[in-house]
Specification:
Elements: H1 9-14, H2 18-51, H3 65-94, H4 97-104, H5 107-118
Helix pairs in contact: 2-3
């Protein structure tokens, strides 16, 4: 809900006003889309490193086991980032502010949110 925000004031305000909800949703979706674009670039770059031979082995030898492990880790994290980002965008677009307010007002959700912001 408070993606890139120092406090929860604006997201909570958006749950009570339709115009604020639209503005907050647009901002959140734009930020998540930018994150997905960056993850897509990392994903394709790591896929290229995993599937090709280096052009100049004397200059840059990335066919060692450590480089492959790091590139595979980068690939997996970028893929996970893209999938979770797409899930966030789809869930956010599919639900209305009343449903989100009801879910965020439940005791288990408020406890989880307070624990995340406390650390």
């Amino acid at each position: 809900m408070a993606f890139g925000r120092p406090s929860l004031e604006r997201p909570w305000k958006s749950l009570t006003d339709d115009d604020e909800w639209e503005k907050h949703g647009k901002t959140l979706i734009e930020r998540q889309s930018n994150t997905n674009i960056a993850a897509g670039l990392v994903l394709t770059t790591s896929a290229v490193f995993l599937s090709t031979q280096p052009p100049l082995t004397s200059f840059l030898l990335y066919t060692t086991r450590t480089c492959y492990a790091l590139a595979l880790g980068s690939f997996a994290h970028a893929l996970g980032s893209m999938l979770s980002g797409l899930a966030v965008i789809n869930i956010y677009k599919a639900n209305d502010r009343i449903w989100v307010k009801d879910v965020c007002s439940r005791p288990d959700c408020t406890y989880a949110c307070s624990q995340n912001y406390r650390s």
